[in-house]
């Protein structure tokens, strides 16, 4: 009779992540989801201001080829106190760039825990899960969780209104007509 072979434990699957800070809080993102890291100063010439009052976390847009990339302020997104961002992550396979305070380090994670039930609102869309590194629990963000499809639609719509001067002219003409209608014809005495 042959002795049983010892059970082989499967090799742990590791994932390279970037630890970054936003308003003093630590977050992680898969390094594969970050296309490029830039200094905030590098956006100054390329970024165009955008105004969408219902989405205060987005104040700028960057054109990359034919695509529009919306710059999300991570502190505002997470509801954290404002801090001056130093870097921007250009996120892969999204139309999002993320303003952050800085990079803590690059490392790898071997385990991604599901979110506890305490995460029960919009944060379920923000995070892939949690990981533990050096006795610290770190939320791992979803790159596509910074802008929902509805928010992208709203931003695209406001962008098309800004860039379509003919639509702006029609809107202004409608405003003049509406103003004239509210004044009425009036009578002379």
Write the layout of secondary structure elements.
Blueprint: E1 15-22, E2 25-30, E3 34-39, E4 47-49, E5 58-64, E6 67-73, H1 74-78, E7 87-91, E8 96-100, E9 102-109, H2 123-126, E10 127-133, E11 136-141, H3 149-163, H4 165-183
Parallel strand pairs: 6-8
Antiparallel strand pairs: 1-2, 1-9, 3-7, 4-5, 5-6, 7-8, 10-11
Domain count: 1
Any idea what the shape is?
Answer: elongated
Question: Helix segment count?
Answer: 4
Q: What structural category do the secondary elements indicate?
A: alpha+beta
Q: Major beta sheet, specifics?
A: 6 strands, mixed
Radius of gyration: 24 Å
Share of helix, binned: 10-25%
Beta-strand content estimate: 35-45%
Q: What's the β-strand tally? A: 11
Average pLDDT: 84
CATH architecture term: Beta Barrel
Give your account of this protein's structure:
Helices cover 23% and strands 36% of the residues. The protein is α+β, with helices and mostly antiparallel strands and 189 residues long. It has a single domain (15-147), classed as Beta Barrel (OB fold (Dihydrolipoamide Acetyltransferase, E2P)). The chain has a 6-stranded mixed β-sheet. A hairpin with a 4-residue loop joins strand 7 (87-91) and strand 8 (96-100). Mean pLDDT is 84; it is low at 167-189.
Tags for this model:
alpha+beta; six-stranded mixed sheet; 11 strands; elongated; disordered C terminus
Nutshell version of this structure?
With 189 residues, the chain is of the alpha+beta class. 23% of the residues lie in helices and 36% in strands.
């Amino acid at each position: 009779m042959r002795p049983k072979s010892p059970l082989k434990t499967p090799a742990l699957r590791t994932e390279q992540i970037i630890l970054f800070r936003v308003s003093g809080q630590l977050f992680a993102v898969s390094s594969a989801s970050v296309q490029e890291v830039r200094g905030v100063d590098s956006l100054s010439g390329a970024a165009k201001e955008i105004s969408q009052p219902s989405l205060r976390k987005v104040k700028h847009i960057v054109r990359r080829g034919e695509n529009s990339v919306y710059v999300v302020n991570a502190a505002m997104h997470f509801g954290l106190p404002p801090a001056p961002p130093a870097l921007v992550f250009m996120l892969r396979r999204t139309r999002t760039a993320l303003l952050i305070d800085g990079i803590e380090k690059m490392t790898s994670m071997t385990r991604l825990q599901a979110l506890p039930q305490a995460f029960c609102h919009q944060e379920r869309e923000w995070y892939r899960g949690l990981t533990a590194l050096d006795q610290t629990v770190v939320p791992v963000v979803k790159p596509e969780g910074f802008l929902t499809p509805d928010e992208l639609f709203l931003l695209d719509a406001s962008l098309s209104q800004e860039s379509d001067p003919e639509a702006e002219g029609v809107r202004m003409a409608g405003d003049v007509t509406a103003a004239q209608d509210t004044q009425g014809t009036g009578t002379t005495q």
